[in-house]
Amino acid sequence: MRSFYLFLPACLFLFAGTIVISGQDIGETLKRGPAIIPEAYDRSSLSWILVHDRGDSHTSTLANSFVNDIRHSDKFFLNPLDTDVLIFRGVRSKDNKRIPVKNIKHNLEELNFSRQIISHWYSRTDNGFMDMERIHRRGLENATDADVIRYQSTARGNWALMDYGNRLIDKSYIITLDFTEISRVNTDRYEGYKSDVVASLFRVDLSEEDKEIIYESWVLEEDSEEEAQRKRELFETLNPPLKYVTQIRTTTSSYNYKEHTFLGSITPHKTTEELFADLVQTAYDNVLFELERDYEDFRVITPLYSVKPLSAKIGKKEGLNVDQRFFVYEHRYNPKTRNVTERRRGVIRATSDIIDNRDIATGDMEPSRFYQVAGKRLHEGYVLQQRNDYGIELEMGASLGEIGGGTLGLNYSVGRILGIRAFYLTGNIGINNKKYPDFPVIEEELEGNVFFFRWDAGLAKGFHFLRNFEFRPYVTYGQEQATNDGFDHDQISTYFLKGGANLALNITYFMQIVAGANYYVIFGNAFDEDKPLDNKYTHYFDDREGVALFAGLRFKF
Length: 557
Hints:
Layout: H1 2-32, E1 45-52, H2 59-68, E2 77-78, E3 85-87, H3 101-110, H4 113-121, H5 133-142, H6 145-152, H7 158-162, H8 164-168, E4 172-186, E5 190-204, H9 208-216, H10 225-236, E6 242-257, H11 262-266, H12 272-294, E7 301-303, E8 306-307, E9 310-312, E10 325-334, E11 339-350, E12 368-375, E13 383-386, E14 392-401, E15 405-413, H13 415-418, E16 423-435, E17 440-441, E18 444-445, E19 449-461, E20 463-466, E21 469-483, E22 492-508, E23 511-528, E24 531-536, H14 537-540, E25 546-556
Parallel strand pairs: 1-2, 1-3, 1-4
Antiparallel strand pairs: 4-5, 5-6, 7-13, 8-9, 9-12, 10-11, 10-13, 11-12, 14-15, 14-25, 15-16, 16-19, 17-18, 19-21, 20-21, 21-22, 22-23, 23-24, 23-25
Helix pairs in contact: 2-12
């Protein structure tokens, strides 16, 4: 048993080292960013298609959930298509069972989906009549308050904002979802479904020649039937190619917890249709999240509106969520080189004070509030760019005092789910090896060192009182186990409550030095595996309660 516990921490620290190296790579990638942050943010428009084969026994339920149950993000325009589901037969690759991109692209172009998207933009009817109403409306909906304010002083005014729609057409995308292998899951605690998902992103590659065809095929009221027919036939020749952009791989799952579990007793039982609706929605959300991380056109960009308080004129229309991360950039013009360079000046996150701006901007919308978590002093006019993170933190360090040893912790930001900024679910494991010479335990003498293994889990709340400092109190509940060869492989265990606080200082936005103090309170009698003992844990180990200090590093992902 003791050899197992000695092996476990070694594995954990090896894993931690791997994560640290990855974290540094991720940090450097994010730090480099694009060559130049675009000057403005334009909303992309999306069309979603489910691709699958007839061999899947869940095809009908999956397709129904995909067509009817997805809650689409307000951040993107939606371009519906005549077909939401494409069936491929016998084309899955042998290695990972996905449908090859070249097959998907060929079918999308063969079915003229690009032409359907253009028809939707121009509200084209079967008779060939088109108008600019949807384009102009989307141009107005795309505009932020900053855009409205900028153009209020110009002669064109709202016409300039309406013309935004013309450039939005170039951000028309198709996303296909391939649930590569849906499997049924049934354990002692839960049952449901899981699947790997491959999403492929394509952009409508509209050339200047294609745009000329659109305008030349515009049927007018005064056109003769012969002229109108000529224009309708000309429009049928329009089929802009699709440019493959990227592919996202993710996983999705949806479960019912069984009645004998705590979660099963407090959560409603979902039908098969409801489980599939959750399965599809989770895949949709995960794919958008990853595209926002990796692809420029999916990231929100806006000026910093004010610094006291920190605010920007974006909100629910841009998909803003609590604790969503933004990098803040300063653009500098070099008169010698005549080039504009960018420098990241800080990192900020959204508070719960998020404005509902889903109506057309008027110029007088209240801004959403942010708080700074890293960087230098910010100024109005700096550029914010959305940079999603996973809300995961890894902590490595050591404890000193009554409860010492190495520790490894994992924090997850649940505040973005609950709507509370800097609110975390936290978990830790720790190890300690101490010698207790001639110390009687359960009528036996200890031989050699006692190995302690502990775990705890709880909640933590962060407070950012300075730009690069965070104060985070927490409370957790856990268990400690003591093993020794003299115990005849039994364990002496106890439960404890731990409360404390850490102070973190940024090294960079994804790495912090952390130091703090906590207090362990033992409660209840100790137990030997499942057998309760007559005394408290501190009767056998009198120094396993009280104050402990912690110091280490924290990495953010």
